Amino acid sequence: MASSATTLEFEKPIAELERQIEELKRTAGERELEMGEEIAPLERRLSELRDEVYKNLSPFQRVQVARNNKRPFTADYLRLAFTDFIELHGDRAFRDDPAIIGGWARLDGETVMCIGHQRGRDTKEQLKRNFGMPHPEGYRKALRLMKLAEKFHVPVLTFIDTQGAWAGLGAEERGQSEAIARNLYEMSQLTVPIIATVIGEGGSGGALALGVADRVLMMENAVYSVISVEGCAAILWKDAKSPAMREKAATALRITAPELLELKVIDEVIPEPVGAAHSDHEAAATSLHKVLNRHLEELRKYRPEKLVRRRRQKFLRLGQWAE
Fold first, then answer.
1. For labeling, which of 2, 50, 100, 200 is most exposed (least CB within 10 Å)?
2. What does the pLDDT look like over 46-92, one tens digit per residue?
3. E strands along 178-261, which residues?
4. How far apart are CA 275 and CA 273, in angstroms?
5. What is the DSSP secondary structure assignment for residue 271, as one 8-state letter?
6. H helix or E strand, kind and range, residue 107
């Protein structure tokens, strides 16, 4: 990853070392010099530094990694981990929402229905995708595709990567809360296997609308929470901008993959390559592909009624309460 304006603060030593290695390689190429002996120790140090930095990320640093627009998005995983993707559009009621993409695909030859949030990398695409924050028609499109998959007895794979559902006036007028609630209700009863994977930032109901699944997985540096760290800091401490308050909120919310696995909110953490998923999209997709295959194979063993019953029990067991 080259040094740039989007390099995160804790990644700057990595970016600087990468720059030095690239400079040496360029010089060697221009002058036709053999500099392998000089470059090899730097490359070893780079690998060690990446490992060291990413093993010791704080909760808010993981939030920053999860939001990094260099990370693989849903469309990248569809290209790298699946074949024969055919995108389906529209909710058959209002319009197509580009913040959610979905359609038929094949996972090692088996037909599956893939649905996920889609963010953008540059300003033009971010505006087109509404920064990955869906309108109600996005959730209604997702539900239409899930019901289509159920009709043909095909598993549903969802990919979560959103700050949350869009809270604009138009979205509220067209029933944002009803669309999310309807997805929760329908997903809880869907008679085909559902696997949800948090690939980046899983925020609030906008994430949960694709998250009622038989298995909930998370990429190693993804985050999953009921509210953004800034929203939490603003409510509790009236300070959404201070790095200290954002770090405090991220720690209190327990939003990282290892913490959520411990709390049994998710079922498995998918390892990312050294330097996180944005450093090697292909390796991240390979990890995801392997884990999805394993869980699908396990879920195929259950009859539809048992699948629904187990899914319901899974979510009823979450949390603690006293009568």
1. 2
2. 888 888 888 888 999 999 999 999 999 999 999 999 999 999 999 99
3. 194-203, 215-219, 223-225
4. 6
5. P
6. strand 100-107
